[in-house]
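[job 0417] fold request received: Amidase domain-containing protein
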Amino acid sequence: MASSTAANLWVLLGLGIAGVLLAAKRLRRPARPDNGAFIARLELLPPPQPPPPQARHPLTGLCFAIADAFHVSGYITSFGSLEWAKTHDAATQTSLVVSSLVDGGAMCVGKTVIDEMAFSIHGENKHFGTPTNPAAPDRVPGGCSSGSAVAVAAGIVDFSLGIDTIGGVRVPGSYCGVLAFRPSHAVVPNNGVIPVAPSLDAIGWFARDPSVLRRVGHLLLRLPYADIRQPRHFYIADDCFEMSKFLLAVNFLMLNFFPLRITLGQVLGHVNLENYLASRIPSLRNNSNGHGDSKFSSLLALSRAMQFLHKHEFKDQHMEWINSVKPAVDACIVGNLSDDGESTINNSQDARKEVRAALGALLKDDGILVIPTVLGCPPKLNARELSSQDYNVQTSCLTSLASMSGCCQVTVPLGTHDKCPVSVSLIARHGGDRFLLDTIQTIHATIQEQVDALAKSNVSSKQAMSEEAAEAAKEKGNIAFKEKQWQKAINFYTEAIKLNNKVATYYSNRAAAFLELASYRQAEADCTSAIDIDPKIVKAYLRRGTAREMLGYYKEAVDDFSHALVLEPMNKTAGVAINRLKKLFP
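[job 0417] inference complete; emitting structure tokens
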């Protein structure tokens, strides 16, 4: 009996091993793929070079990987799910974009991990494991095209393809510190790619080198040769940068990057994107969802509108399979598939049309909008915030701009901050793909020079960034003061002081705003701090004298005005104040 049981166990064990080997063969999943980026290694070789004098293939010498939502003839497309792989046959045709790249001279070397059913933007996958982020190994790589971003960041391939629905290329590009391009909606054909939400889907690509990014783009977009066109306007979305958790690092790098406009003849403008969208997209008011008083209610409403369309179209594409197979789908997917009213979908579709028109009117043919790609550092692996609705909404409030408008967007690395990659994004109007690719080709070297100069500087990076960011905050405070927005000015000056507390002007300027609000004790204290730093700052003596006069400290006020007069003998304000006080209190 015991021997019979043992024999049965050996049979079952053998069948189990055979099943595992069969599944591994069927999926061609390597045991230890590089950085966990790949689920299958393969080789799609380009055709022979044409004979001279014909030009060589444009992508000759490059290798690439593809996210596992692209079909390759003879291979199963797992779509980030083992259960999907088990219920689908091998593809009979290769995706059109993959074939185009191979025909263009590049070699495809593998299929990469994506989030389950390409649904989320985290980069985690319970079926194939989470690829290791080369730029921050203890943090998520971002999704859905996590493996493609990791393969480029690790130097395994020259470029890679991914799917971007709600940020699936831009977010991992930012988290892994590589260039990432989302083209205008529907300009790259998606034949042979599993859809997620068709009205939002775009085939994007990653690269480390801007020239590779551009070469791939020219082939996929089928662009004829033309001279590079320079942007005429950069619009900085100030309010979006204020949302960023690494405002300090981005502000410093932005301030060092944008002086290139002087040499290129570009105009730098500033825009409050929240106010602009609120005035141009009435449909967002119907998506406020109780956040109408939020400082960023329009951006959050746009994010929600995108998420409504995302899950609505995802259900149309895949709910039949989910209901029939009943797979153990990740909670982040099934938890987001509740029904939404028809009016919500209609409002979201209206918002999509309106945001495209709004950004088109702002950017026209020669404008670039500059925003943070994401609001903060990549979350740590298995962090609770990954399952937080707030995290998903806040992360997608910036990605929703291009997803909903259909505009093209490129993620541009700006080095690191606190050991995490930092990036900004450039957005051009829908159809401005060549223009955007040309722009990043032109300015990328300047950006990297600034990043490298910062890294090699003898001055502490943090100190240098603090000083630059503090100056930026002070300038914003000055603008608010001129507009008589006293409390807003105080907030900006306070931010400047937090960043660099050794500049007397910051305290003196904040004192001026406090005086306007009749906050005389705060004004007096700020002026004293300013004078302690710089005993020759005349404005601080004048403002402290005014504060002390209003507080009833007349003798001390006369002393301050007198000191100002010593420093500036022709100062009329000090002279008038002294005469006034001496007449009132001889």
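[job 0417] notes: Residues 36 and 131 are 4 Å apart (CA to CA). The chain has two domains: 38-285+297-458, 463-584.
[job 0417] exit 0
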